[in-house]
Please model this.
Amino acid sequence: MITEAWALEFAERWIAAWNSHDLERILEHYSDDFEMSSPLIVERMNVPWGMLRGKAAIRPYWAKSVAAKPPLKFELLAVHVGANRIAIVYRSVGRRFVVEVLTFNEAGVATHGAALYGDEVSEGFGHAVLTRWNNCRLISPTNEASWSEYHRIRRAVLFENRGEIGVYDPNHPSDREARNHAKVLMYGDECVGVVRIDFAGDNAYLRRVAIDGPWQRRGLGRALIRLAERFAREHGAQRIGSNVARDAVPFYEKCGYRVVAGTQYEGASVPMEKQLG
Model:
């Protein structure tokens, strides 16, 4: 069965391949006998039933897409997961919404695909693995207001909500070290979460991950993790880890993290890691 973490990783790779306009890179995601259904096949290939079978038949159809003007650009909005298929929701050229449903074989290669087009995405479309994270971004606190929000969320979620009153230190020197990067998760204009991303060689570490109380259980924690991983990868990290609260272990497992093999751990946290390379 397809996991949420795998579906997210595939969708990001798939979107990146299309945005590269590299036809061979795109075709790597599909089996040789792949079947594709789309209303654009009727329009562009003059195939009344709207279906093509096999890479040889699909190649000229997609060649027209990657050569189109203005240049093709996809924006990932959400991913939905089934037993052996996923639905990738994205915004295409002209801000048109598309749902691409892909079915996979046991090797994780797409064997069937169907593209559905519309003017909007229904907010009630199943369970979104990825909240519209195009509205999310990680920023570095640079002024008194953003640092205040950074410390407020950390203090409330990670300390006071756990009964640790009056012990949080907003002036801890580690927050300002060059290898450590304090980040605030913005959702639109709202400060909704925090994380600190530390680096040691080609390893990155997530410290003090928190989503502000009113914004929890909306998929923003997953968006924060994905954006933190992207930041770590862009800065050369091959692996990323975190000491995870025991009650958060299932969440991190869904994000593709595993308990560090051979480690002995006691107390409230569990060491977990994920390969980024």
